[in-house]
Specification:
63 residues, 3 helices, mainly alpha, single chain
Length: 63
C-alpha cells in the first residue's frame, strides 16, 4: 500500500468517525432538549391564567 493510499484511508476514517460522533452528539442534544421541562410545567397548565390576555399587554416592545 502506498503512502498516498494510507493517507486517503486515514482521511476517510477520520471523516467517518467525525460524522458518527457528530450525529451521536446531535441526537443526544435533541433528546435532552425534548425531555427537558421547566419548573412546574405541568402545574402551570392547571394553575395558569384563566382569561386570555392580549399579546400587546404582555409584550412591551415597539413603543
Amino acid at each position: 500500500m502506498s503512502n498516498r493510499n494510507r493517507r486517503r484511508g486515514a482521511g476517510l476514517l477520520i471523516a467517518l468517525l467525525s460524522i458518527l460522533l457528530g450525529g451521536g452528539a446531535a441526537a443526544a442534544a435533541v433528546s435532552a432538549v425534548a425531555a427537558a421541562k421547566g419548573p412546574n410545567d405541568s402545574q402551570s397548565v392547571i394553575t395558569g391564567p384563566k382569561n386570555v390576555v392580549a399579546p400587546s399587554q404582555v409584550i412591551g416592545y415597539g413603543g
